[in-house]
Write a structure and sequence with these properties.
The chain is an alpha+beta fold and 252 residues long. It folds into two domains: 4-105 and 230-248, Thrombin, subunit H (Beta Barrel), CATH 2.40.10.10; 108-226, Thrombin, subunit H. It has helices at residues 4-7, 43-48, 69-74, 226-233, 236-248; strands at 10-15, 23-33, 36-42, 54-60, 63-68, 82-84, 89-93, 121-126, 142-152, 157-160, 172-176, 193-205, 218-225. Strands 5-4-1-2-3-7-6 form a seven-stranded antiparallel sheet. A six-stranded antiparallel barrel has the order 8-9-10-13-12-11. A hairpin with a 4-residue loop joins strand 6 (82-84) and strand 7. The radius of gyration is 19 Å and the shape is globular.
Length: 252
């Protein structure tokens, strides 16, 4: 079960057309590194937006608010999206205006791919088919569960049995690690919920074959592991933006 802090570490992500009309297209995750909170999503979500302004929906001063990242980045030269096309990831500094109610995930609450195992329970959060959630007045990512179905270490990819759909892209893969130790006892006080990666692709495998009865298609989610996210946030592009951010901060 995710507590309220975990539920605030991701948010709906989408296009902000004219008149501030919200079009959810996926989700994003807030990850903290080097005293900066980063908004991480799938790179193709930005491509899908076709140069339209994008942003995320967060709670500010108790109200659901669309935070337009494109507009904010345009005001600060040197700040924008840092993109890894190979892993289909994008990360940009997350503005933290007064009253914003989000939480960020530190590297200490993330699992590297070597720590993941097929069969580990996992969750995803996203906006399948652009659905605004159960309450259209307060769009929130929908949560689905499954297991880690497979790993592709060389490509830093994770496959999950969670049924993902267009609009889930950019949402987190959240893995559960059992609190039980090998002796059969329980490790009290040790975290069990971790960020494992970002959903980037929906895979539908058809089982239909000629002269055989139809077989339901298999839905899998595929995503970039935390290893790929970490490389993006610690790379040269992110370091350059960190330098711009630190120069822009007023002296204490």
């Amino acid at each position: 079960m995710l507590d309220q802090d975990w539920l605030k570490t991701f948010a709906p992500f989408g296009i902000i057309p004219e008149q501030n009309r919200w079009q959810p297209t996926g989700a994003c995750v807030f990850i903290a590194y080097e005293d900066v909170v980063w908004c991480v999503t799938a790179a193709h979500v930005l491509t899908t937006a076709a140069s339209k302004p994008v942003g995320c929906m967060v709670t500010m001063n108790g109200q659901q608010t669309i935070l337009g990242l494109t507009e904010i980045y345009a005001k600060t030269p040197g700040i924008g999206w840092n993109i890894d096309r190979d892993s289909d990831l994008a990360a940009g500094p997350m503005p933290m205006p007064p009253g914003i109610d989000i939480r960020s995930i530190g590297f200490d609450r993330c699992l590297e791919q070597k720590d993941l195992l097929p069969s580990m329970p996992c969750l995803t959060a996203g906006q399948p088919y652009g659905l605004p959630g159960v309450d259209p007045a307060k769009p929130t990512p929908l949560i689905l569960d499954g297991i880690i179905a497979g790993l592709e270490p060389a490509q830093r990819r994770i496959f999950v049995s969670v049924p993902t759909f267009p609009g889930n892209s950019g949402g987190p893969i959240i893995a559960y690690r059992t609190p039980w130790n090998t002796a059969g006892g329980m490790n009290v006080g040790i975290p069990t919920v971790f960020f494992a990666g970002i959903i980037t692709q929906t895979i539908v495998l058809s089982g239909n074959q000629p002269d055989k009865s139809p077989i339901p298609p298999l839905h899998l989610g595929s995503g970039a592991s935390f290893d790929a996210v970490k490389q993006l946030l610690t790379g040269e592009g992110a370091k350059r933006m960190l330098g711009v951010i630190r120069q822009a901060k007023p002296a204490d």
